[in-house]
Amino acid sequence: xxxxxxxxxxxxxxxxxxxxxxxxxxxxxxxxxxxxxxxxxxxxxxxxxxxxxxxxxxxxxxxxxxxxxxxxxxxxxxxxxxxxxxxxxxxxxxxxxxxxxxxxxxxxxxxxxxxxxxxx
Length: 120
Hints:
Layout lengths: L2 H4 L3 H19 L8 H7 L4 H24 L4 H25 L3 H16 L1
Helix pairs in contact: 2-6, 4-5, 5-6
C-alpha cells in the first residue's frame, strides 16, 4: 500500500486506490490481487491459523489508514474508528463488485467517502 505514501491525504490516497480497483474490474473483469475478502470467507471456517492471519492482514490495512488519518489531524480514537469504517466499506464493496460483476459499489464508496470524512 505504498499508494498512501504518494498522496498527502487519506482521501486522495483512498480515492486513488479505489480508482485502481474500478479500472481493474472494468478492464479485466476482476479485482483479484487487491482483495482477500473472498479468501477469508472461504478459508476462515476451515482453519483457525488462516483466520488469524487474515485478521492480522486486516489490522495491517487498518493501520495504514490509521497512520494516514493521524497525519491528516484526526484524534487517535477517531482515526481508529474511521480506519475500521474505510476497511469495511472498501472490502465489502469489493465483494459486492465481484458478486454483481459491476464496479458500481466501489464507485458509490468513492463518491460518498469525501463527505463522510468531512463529517468527522
